[in-house]
Amino acid sequence: MAEEELPAILVLDIGGTHGVLEDLAVLLKKHFHLITMKEFLGNKEEMSKKIQSVFVFDCRPTIDRELLESLPNLKVIGNSGVGVDHLDLKMISSFGVKVTNTPHAVSDPTADIGMALMLASARRLVEGNALNFLGPSL
User: Which residues form the D-isomer specific 2-hydroxyacid dehydrogenase catalytic domain (predicted)?
Assistant: First the structure.
């Protein structure tokens, strides 16, 4: 499938501080034509008609009324996190746009951290570790 045939998806950026992770971008490029926010803003008239989806990574890009109004063919906003508290679902749905998320993406790591914190607390690991740095006692 040629790049022009792939559905276009808007992302804030690829790599950098707030962009989509580069490994994730490689995966996305297999199924989508990625358009960065810089490319979109540089040629809004042409790009706005192509974009059918927005990929929200790390709560970015911000989904506001202005962005939704500028994307007439937008169908889906895909959020790469568990919650959607940062999205105005009522406003988004008023544009006929669906919102997806990944509700189980961090379930196992969250459980692992919870167990580690409980064990560390019960066994006083933090205090024991701090004592090791004080050196041997006489």
Answer: 28-113
